[in-house]
C-alpha cells in the first residue's frame, strides 16, 4: 500500500481522542512511507492529520475545490496541493491517487465521501479496501443504522462485511491489507420487482 485516502472532519470534534487519533494516524503513515491523500484543509482533523504526516517526514497530497479554499483554509505546506473546480473532481482525484480509504470521525461530508467509495466498491467500480477508524466508538450508531438496512432488506450482509471497522491502527491496516474484493453479482432479486 503506497497511499491512503483519509476522509475526516474540518472540525476537531468534541472529543480530544479524535485529534489524538488523527495525529497517530499521520505518524503511522509517515513511518511506513504511505502517502496521505486527503481533502487539502489546514483546519480540524484534516489539518492535524496532515501536519502529523509532514512533521513525521511523510508525504501529503491535498485536493481542495476552489470554492472551499477559504472555508476549509487550504493547507499551503503540503508535499502536493491540487486546487480543483468541483467536489466531483476532488473525490475523483483523491480516489485515483489512493490504494485504500479510511474514514476518521467527521460530519456529513466525511460520511458522503465514505459511502461513495463503499458504493463504488459494491458496484465493482474499484477493488480498493476501505475502513472506518472507530475512534472512541464514534461509528457505533452508524453500525446500528447499517444493521437496520440489512434487517429491512436494503443491504446484503456481504456488503457490510466489505467494510473494515477497527478502533486501533494495527487491526485497521491488517484488515485493509487482507481485503479481498467481492465478486460483484446482481443484488436485486428481479422476482421482487
Query: In the CATH hierarchy, what is the class?
Result: Alpha Beta
> How much strand?
15-25%
Strand elements, count: 7
Could you say how many structural domains there are in total? 1
Order of helices and strands: EHEHEEHEHEHHEH
How would you portray this structure in words?
With 193 residues, this protein is of the alpha/beta class. It has a single domain, classed as Rossmann fold. Helix content is 41%, strand content 17%. The chain has helices at 16-31, 44-55, 87-96, 108-122, 140-151, 157-160, 169-178; strands at residues 3-7, 35-38, 60-65, 80-84, 100-103, 130-133, 163-166. The chain has a seven-stranded parallel beta sheet. Strand 2, helix 2 and strand 3 (60-65) form a beta-alpha-beta unit. Helix 1 packs parallel to helix 2 (44-55). It is globular, with a radius of gyration of 17 Å. The chain starts with a strand and ends in a 15-residue tail after the last helix.
Amino acid at each position: 500500500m503506497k497511499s491512503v485516502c483519509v476522509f475526516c472532519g474540518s472540525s476537531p470534534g468534541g472529543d480530544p481522542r479524535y485529534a489524538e487519533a488523527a495525529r497517530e494516524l499521520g505518524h503511522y503513515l509517515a513511518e511506513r512511507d504511505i502517502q496521505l491523500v486527503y481533502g487539502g484543509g489546514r483546519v480540524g482533523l484534516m489539518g492535524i492529520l496532515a501536519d502529523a504526516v509532514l512533521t513525521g517526514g511523510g508525504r501529503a497530497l491535498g485536493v481542495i475545490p476552489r470554492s472551499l479554499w477559504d472555508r476549509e483554509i487550504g493547507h499551503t505546506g503540503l508535499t502536493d496541493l491540487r486546487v480543483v473546480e468541483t467536489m466531483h473532481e476532488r473525490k475523483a482525484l483523491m480516489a485515483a491517487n489512493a490504494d485504500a480509504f479510511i474514514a476518521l470521525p467527521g460530519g456529513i461530508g466525511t460520511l458522503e465521501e465514505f459511502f461513495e467509495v463503499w458504493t463504488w466498491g459494491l458496484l465493482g467500480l474499484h477493488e480498493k479496501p476501505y475502513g472506518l477508524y472507530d475512534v472512541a466508538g464514534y461509528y457505533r450508531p452508524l453500525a446500528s443504522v447499517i444493521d437496520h438496512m440489512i434487517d429491512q432488506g436494503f443491504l446484503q450482509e456481504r456488503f457490510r462485511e466489505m467494510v473494515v471497522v477497527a478502533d486501533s491502527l494495527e487491526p485497521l491496516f491488517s484488515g485493509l491489507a487482507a481485503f479481498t474484493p467481492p465478486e460483484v453479482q446482481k443484488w436485486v432479486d428481479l422476482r421482487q420487482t
